[in-house]
Amino acid sequence: MAQIPYELTPDILRQLELYRIESRRAVLGSRQGVHASRKRGHGIEFSDYRKYELGDDPRHIDWGVYARSDRLYVKRSQEDQDLTVLLAVDGSASMRSLTGDAKWERSCDVALAVGYVTLMARDAVICSVLGGAHSPRFAGGRAYSHLLQMLRNATPGGSPDLERELQRALSRVHYPGIALWVSDFMMPIELTRRMALLFRSKNLQVIAVQVLGSRDIVPLQPGDAARCVDSETGAELELAMDDETLAEYRVLLAEHNRNLARILKENEVALVTHSPAEQLSQLLFGSLGAIGLFR
Amino acid sequence: MSTLFSLGLSQPWVLVLLPILGVALLTLYRRRQRGNEVPVGSLMILSRLQNPRRPETKITPPPRFFFELLLLLLFLLGVGRLYHSEDTKRVAVLIDNSLSMAVVNHRSAFPKSLLAAAVDEAIRTIRDIPSGDRVVLFETSPVLRRVTDSEGHSAVVEAFEKVRAVFARDQLQGAVNDLASQGFDRVYVFSDKYGEGVNPSSTVHSQGVFSSISAAEAANIAIAGIRRVSSVSEARREAVEVEIAAYGKAAGSVELIVEPIGWDGKVNGAPRRANVRLETGRSVWSSVELPVQQDGAGWRVSLAGIQSPDRDWLPEDNQGWIPATKRAQKIGVISPFSLEDLGLQRIPGFEFVRCEKEALGGCLAEVHGLIIHREEVPLPLVEGDAAERALALVMPPNSPLYAPYGSGCSEAKPTWWSPSEEILGYLSLAGITFPQCLSFATPAWGARLIDSTQGTVAFQGRLGRVRLLVTGFDLFPFRGKAQPFSSVFLLNLLKWLRNSSADTSEGDDLAAILAGAENAQWLNGSGASTASGEERRAPAPGLYVISAADGTKEVRAFNFFAQDESEPRVRPYSIPESKKGPSGNQKSEDEEGRRLGTSLAWLLIGLLVLDLLVQGLRIFVGRGKE
Description:
By secondary structure, chain A is of the alpha/beta class. Chain A is built from 9 helices and 10 strands.
């Protein structure tokens, strides 16, 4: 079987080096970084004043205010800290590339691209394949190779308990940050909702990327008859596809996606839908930029 | 077309698998044609379709389906051992139902008789016989008898229920010879005997069932002989001498009981008892005074005190019967000399009568023993069962029946000795040099008696109930009336002859008497019953009150004392050579089955290779198109 090429080429990586992860919220980090932190400290950007208290560093006293008001105030600034990005990639069997459409490879590419941008900005990445491996905290540009190796070695399969797997992944996240959730979301809406709530419980800014394979969009071509086998449960469904059935399927899929978008929106999760048939660069520099992940 | 009709299956049940496997194959094709298996990420959306259209269920089997069905059929025909026969075979199943087949191995986990084991084995064999063949069941005892009227397999299997071990010898050698000469294509023999001398072309196949029992561990206690003797005591009471034999590992003490039996068949007086100590492999004569009875039918002799069945594998032979009335003991003599010349009338205790060779049948019906002296042995005696002739001693000289043969008779030595033979208790031929040595062509059975296969000298044996002695007396030259030949040797020969005439009968003889009797009552110790047809054919031990057509009554005792049947050991017999050649329709269905099976296997392999080639070509062409 021919190896499906990964599309995260050096050209795209070079372009990605121009981008930074944009956090819409103030973050908390463990080290100094470039992202505005919830912590008040001694950054460049002014935040507010506070009355001088015993023990404050006299260097932070705003002498101008003292001259005007004869009171001691300490000038406070927004502290810049590093950002932790959680890459949560659905590793269940439904993510397999069934028709050579590179559904799994594209999902990995998306995660790798976001991870690359994060690491190059000296931020931290935690990668979890839900149903597979969970990485330690990667930081620094050199860690990209580890991330790359981890995702290239990962293989989707089985029918994992996604909720528990996500809990396992989130247990590694200690500070509010960003989470990239890559899945086909061909799962019950209720499960999606519970998983979104788990993200929220960690106060993460979540961007969901729905990667739909060609067979998710068109299971059978009109005129084909087959026994459709669920890749996760092994359940079978005999089906003779025709235009009418395909149209009905598309309606049902659209309805599912609408419900998905609604549920995610309610839980403050931004959703991007993507198909491997589309260009990867279109997703990275178009859709993800549009929702403000990159700047 | 006639070839097609002559095909058969050794195991036709495999045809049942054809529809099952055919349906399985069809199901596979249907499943294959229902549509390919297409994996999808999830059926979640698909399962919500309101009216999904199912694939068409109508299928059209491709040519490959019929090809695979043909392969399946060939495979099943091979498994079922297809054979080809020109005509149906006649198969005889001969089951030994002599007394020895009632032996039960008490040392096995599931004790069952040899007869039951033989029946099990026979049923297994019959199941392997092609259904088209005609199978007939025979039993050996008391005479060779066809048990089944029809010739179907199931009839034979059902008829095994009728087969019972009877108080008779097996006559196996004669039975096998008879069946082999009756034109059966195959004879299966199930016996505790062991068939030897197997000829590759023989139609007889023997199956010994004794192999399930270790003869070395077998044990049996039996009454081997009864003599009614006058007591020398002052009371002038009569006594009975009973020979008790311990076969195999049987040993220890037993109690000998003699009970008077009344006309009602029940014990009607106080018994006499004696304790007898037995040694392994030995027989013991024990004497007990006959209990007094004024008016009774006879006495029963039995053994008691055998506590463990492991000591006595055949309890049926633990009894003997003595009729109340004494009968004269006649010895027939065939000789060129008169009885007076031979001086036989001077020997007390016997009544000698002259017999003529030409009227041997009538003579044998009257006598208990027969001496053939200096006469040619009548052919029927020579051609009989070799196993019945236990010992060769003296030959009739210059007999034209035996042509002199060769000059190596100085090397002729008696080599086969049975310590249980009574005559050998008094005689050892090992030290005898034959003064006038002649060697003779010999019947096949004579080879067992003399080391040299060149001659035999005489024989002693049984002819039905009659003990037979053939002698030329060359070792003891006859010198006329002045010196009758009452040597120790002769007296012992006569003693051996007398043992047969203890007022008892043996099976075949009594059966003949019962067959001609108007009425016969069987007294068995617990009561009296009218002897049925089956009991007349194969009598059981007991006293028989026989009423003749003229109203006269007499009591006959039926005893069955036979070492061959009571001693648990493997006894050989010879399988006769087939009278048919190995070619043509005499080929067994096994050989046919093997030959056809091999052909089928090659055909199957050829077709499979063809199938693989076609498939490979299809794949190759398919790739080329890509």
